[in-house]
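Quick question: what would this complex look like in 3D?
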Amino acid sequence: MEKTAGYSIVSRRRLLALGAAGAAMLATPGWMAAWADTIADAEKTPSGPVVKQAKKAGPYRIGFSNGFSGNSWRAMCIRALQLEAKSQSDVADLIIVDGQNDVTKQVNDIESLASQQVDAILCIANSGTAVVPALRSATADGIVTVPFNLPIEGEDYSAYCGTDPSRKGKSSGSWLKDALGGKGKIVALGGIAGNSYTAAGWKGAQEAFAGSQIEVLAFKDTDWSEDKAKVVMSDLIAAYPEIDGIWADGGQVTAGASKALLAAGRPLVPVTGDDYNGLLKLYDSEKGKQPKFDIGLISEPTWEGVLALRMALSLLRGEEIHKQLIITPKLITKDNYKTYMRPDLPDGVFTDTNLSDEELKKIFS
Amino acid sequence: MTRERPKIDENRSRRGPALRLGRFGAVWIAVLGLFILSGLISPAMFQLSQVLNILQVAAFLGVLATGQTLALLVGGIDLSQAGMVTLVNILSTSIMLGADSRTPMAILACLALAALVGLLNGIIITLLKVTPLIATLAMNSILFGAALVYTGGAPHGDAAPGFQWIGAGNLFGLPVSMIVWLAIALAVAWVLRKTVYGRWLYATGANATAARLMGVPVVPIVISAYVASSVLAALGGLLFTAYIGAPSLGIGNSFLLTSVAAVVVGGTVLTGGVGSVIATIGGTIFITELNSFTNVIQITTGTQMVLQGSIIALSVLLYRLIANSPRAQRAGSG
């Protein structure tokens, strides 16, 4: 998959060719055939050793230890997972427990799911290190464990699925570099201070900038929130008379930062981010008035949990899978954003989703 | 401190302005000092646009801190302000749905809710005798939880365009949010300084038992301080919502401790009875200025937090020194 490492600006034809190559590669393992129904645009790259375990008789009871549930991404993730569980005939029960953003509570949650003898535990970890012993012991007890979305230290689990934040950062960084013609002053806005996801992404972006004339004016943490991003950006606007681009790993952040630019009467600039509907709507309404406004966005798919559940079920059914599955979502640009944007739905929707508009309306009401 | 009020004003007028600013003047020296220091390091801080930007953003914290001053004055603390900001943000945008016609209803609903929450806080603290710190921290958790339950984690709705002007607009070249903030703070300062109610607040915080013996209705006074704190938190939250324009579940988080810090940096004491809403304006500007300055210079979030924490701790130490000096024993309030 190295060939896709830098998205840069590729022609539609090249994208199609890559898609076809990806599809050919993915067509081989039989256990993946059923996945055609989820967002087909994203590449899904199996990696690591092929794993398999003794077939277990269904129906299965699945546990999901969610690190916390305080945002729309998690709400959509849970809904997608629930619908998937319902559609799989051999899933009897999906038990969801909320870690309330507390590392210790999540460890207890995983232990209690294990003691309830569920057949599989899915998990989005609050801490990639703290949950390791609990997952290890559950795995040793014969429970299928599939952490997803946020990385886990080591490999003491049955399988893992998620994006590669470093590669995402490299791709978004190289898009931004190209959008600026290899030259310009940018600011970078990260998530919650000290989080490893932004750190990996930002490192990737900086690798993409290497050798170009991109000058990084500042890196600031903005908690992946529109409010914090707007306040921080209004200070950066005062400090830097020229800001040509904004790198961020979240769409709320660049939406908030762009609104700060608008409030200060400054031109909008090329931004990175994700599939946050509010940013797509902002782009759609402002692009006509703002010639320099441009988007290069990579989602963190809310359907990752669906894939994690399917991987767990494959293992329970005695099928072979690769231990890791790395998702590479398609770049969202000015050319294809309309297929993602949901004009009649709230800003908070993450639009790279397999949920129907009807389901989304139910979640956001 | 109240009992000496007439004398205080007299003392103040006799003292020279600069060196004898005392407890509630010190913060303005700090505001000015930080302004000059930050501008020397980063000239951008001297720009008029940045000064106005800081005052615009300070308004949200400022309205909260005005309410927090009242809670601290009666010897309590209100840690539920942060949760109130989040809940008000979620509630108001979901009622407004971007329509100006629904703005009054949204504002009324938020203020009614805030009054109810303040009443509950006050009753739990006075009649059920739960420590203010615990009672309001628990309430904070309840309010944030309520916002989560209400939205299921997925907020929807938008601030109405006319409403957004209050948070983001300008009037005669000045940020509207700042004008709203200063009007509220000055009104509260007037109430504290000029009304019997204001004196009762101070008396209750200074010594509740003595106040009760003097005939001050201590329980209603304390409850009223929590209602005011909660309603002002809601107003601050509405103002911030008008600035951001969208619902955001984490919007109140940053206020949990800054609302207390702004008041304490202003010179109001945590033990009650001594404090000034006007000095809280200074404390608010100082905290926002510091935050803005640390955003502008190239330091990491970690360093930013260490710096802010140290300065707040240092200012409390300084106030203790000022408070212990004989001259300041007579320092005023208002």
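Answer marked as accepted. Chain B touches chain A through 37 residues (CB under 8 Å).
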